[in-house]
Amino acid sequence: MKKALKIMGTILLLVFIAIQLYQPAPNVDKGQPATTDFMQTYSDMPAEIKMIIQTSCYDCHSNHTNYEWYDYIQPARSLLVEKHIKEAKEDLNFSEWNSYSQRKQKRLITSIKKQIETKKMPMSSYTLMHHNAKLNNVQIKLLTQWLETQE
After folding, report:
1. 70-98 pLDDT tens trace
2. How many CB atoms lie within 10 A of CB 33?
3. Which candidate, 145, 121, 148, places its Cα nearest to that of 57?
4. Distance separating alpha carbons of residues 27 and 43, to the nearest angstrom
5. Residues 50, 39: contact at Cβ < 8 Å?
6. CA angle at 124 for the pair 118 and 132, rounded to the nearest 5°
């Protein structure tokens, strides 16, 4: 029985190590500068607002994800991280902001404001591991006030 458990454990360990060799393409657009279209559109944005958006939104909602070491561990990378990024970018991609119509941009600004006010964004599953992305009440107020001026 002990020998069977050791063999099973060894096999599971080898499978775990083997799946680490598969890494999906990272969400990093090397063809674009670090400043995305959203930041270019609102180039007069206060530095504090820019920092809040980049820290709390860009990893999922742009083509420029800053991966942590644990984001490379499979199968979580394929099943969670990349899935969340793909779904987030389908809703809003700051890197493609200028490709949206003016009407859609206004709707997205309103939606972003509402999501932040109701504390639905950034997602708690994200801020659990990315503590610096969690918005405090002062940041929420600053960001929502700025978004109101853009509506």
Report:
1. 777 777 766 677 888 889 999 999 998 98
2. 9
3. 121
4. 24
5. yes
6. 100
